[in-house]
From TrEMBL, chain A:
GO terms for cellular component: cytoplasm; nucleus; proteasome core complex. Belongs to the peptidase T1B family. The keyword Cytoplasm applies. This is Proteasome subunit beta. Pfam families: Proteasome (PF00227). SUPFAM superfamilies: N-terminal nucleophile aminohydrolases (Ntn hydrolases). Keywords: Cytoplasm, Hydrolase, Nucleus, Protease, Proteasome, Threonine protease, Zymogen. GO terms for biological process: proteolysis involved in protein catabolic process. CDD domains: proteasome_beta_type_5 (cd03761). Component of the 20S core complex of the 26S proteasome. The 26S proteasome is composed of a core protease (CP), known as the 20S proteasome, capped at one or both ends by the 19S regulatory particle (RP/PA700). The 20S proteasome core is composed of 28 subunits that are arranged in four stacked rings, resulting in a barrel-shaped structure. The two end rings are each formed by seven alpha subunits, and the two central rings are each formed by seven beta subunits. The catalytic chamber with the active sites is on the inside of the barrel. Component of the proteasome complex. Component of the proteasome, a multicatalytic proteinase complex which is characterized by its ability to cleave peptides with Arg, Phe, Tyr, Leu, and Glu adjacent to the leaving group at neutral or slightly basic pH. The proteasome has an ATP-dependent proteolytic activity.
UniProtKB/TrEMBL annotation, chain B:
It comes from Gossypium barbadense (Sea Island cotton). CDD domains: proteasome_beta_type_3. Gene3D superfamilies: Glutamine Phosphoribosylpyrophosphate, subunit 1, domain 1. This is Proteasome subunit beta. GO terms for cellular component: cytoplasm; nucleus; proteasome core complex, beta-subunit complex.
Amino acid sequence: MKLDTTGMESAAPVWGSHNELVDEFSAAPSFELPNTTDFDGFQKEAIQMVKPAKGTTTLAFIFKEGVMVAADSRASMGGYISSQSVKKIIEINPYMLGTMAGGAADCQFWHRNLGTKCRLHELANKRRISVTGASKLFANILYSYRGIGLSVGTMIAGWDETGPGLYYVDNEGGRLKGMRFSVGSGSPYAYGVLDNGYRYDMSVEEAAELARRAIYHATFRDGASGGVASVYYVGPNGWKKLSGDDVGELHYRYYPVMPSTVEQEMVEVTGA
Amino acid sequence: MSIFEYNGSALVSMVGKNCFAIASDRRLGVQLQTIATDFQRISKIHDRVFLGLSGLATDAQTLYQRLVFRHKLYQVREERDMKPVTFANLVSALLYEKRFGPYFCQPVIAGLGDEDKPFICTMDSIGAKELAKDFVVAGTASESLYGACESMFKEDMEPEELFETVSQALLSSVDRDCLSGWGGHVYVVTPTEVKERILKGRMD
């Protein structure tokens, strides 16, 4: 009886050792197939399993004086608020900032990784990396992990030789250059305020107030955003943190409680 | 998120010395989006019985309207107000009638019974009563509320101290919940008066 040997072949090729570099060019182009039963749907399943809801509000915009970057500070797990004091603006190096939206661990790790790569670029090329270059590096890393379930929705903001730069990069591998972005579950609300009040020629104070207001309005309407509204400014000399205001206090500063007129007042009756 | 967390809510009621307090948050949302910050979750059935309804807002409104109707009929027939224990039984029966297609609400009932003895109770969505001597909680922030009440509650508090305790417990709990908060609404009821207060809370 002939033994059925399907499934029993070994995975590793038997003959000789390889030179990795040569192999890639000489072999016919091919894709590695995933080892799964559901070829079409497994990617989606993997993402859904790990998917945190990108509950946050971050925004960044370019204006005449540079780049303004702002974010809230709430971390939520479903309905539970796990922290009100998360740093969502990550300092990649003294002239570049990244914002965090999505999985906290993913953003923190890969931003630090990007900082490392930027420093290596500086040492190898004796000049700072451009914002274009840094965001491209980041986008390529994320593209290579596409489908695995990373959750990263970030903006890379910085100032290089060509002036201010702002890119949006996400875990799907998308990379967009732009003047105004907002990322997260609170972004629709932030866009409403940001788009309405934006002008290219604003002063630093006006731009900071616009960013702060946009974050505040997003924290008011969105349940997954809140805590502290941090505002950073990136200028020709690098980034600087401008303010970190608690949004609970901001609300009563923007909308103070007016004592309402008394309609009927009760008084103690003395005597009979 | 489950259907109970669709609108978001927080309710708490505490017993004091010949008085009780019932408090709720003021947010009405659609999942994460906040729609209103002045939503009424607590209603007066009559001067000595208050009803708070957490959970799905549409079911809360409908259930409230049905209960007001039943209470008015009772008033016409019996020519008096319902006692809190009786009212709780009515709510429980009404909820169990819909056992296999329930209202997605958790009521909190608070009232002053015979001899001005305070009465509080809560129920699950199909009418299982939970009577308590100290406090009851309901809503999306209920776990945080249990913790806060457990640590802050003392027996036989006077109305002013009871108000402070209930307010602190409510505000600190909803500050850990994305789906409730945006202010607070507290009723403190004694045999002679009802004090209604709005709390300034974090609006995020």
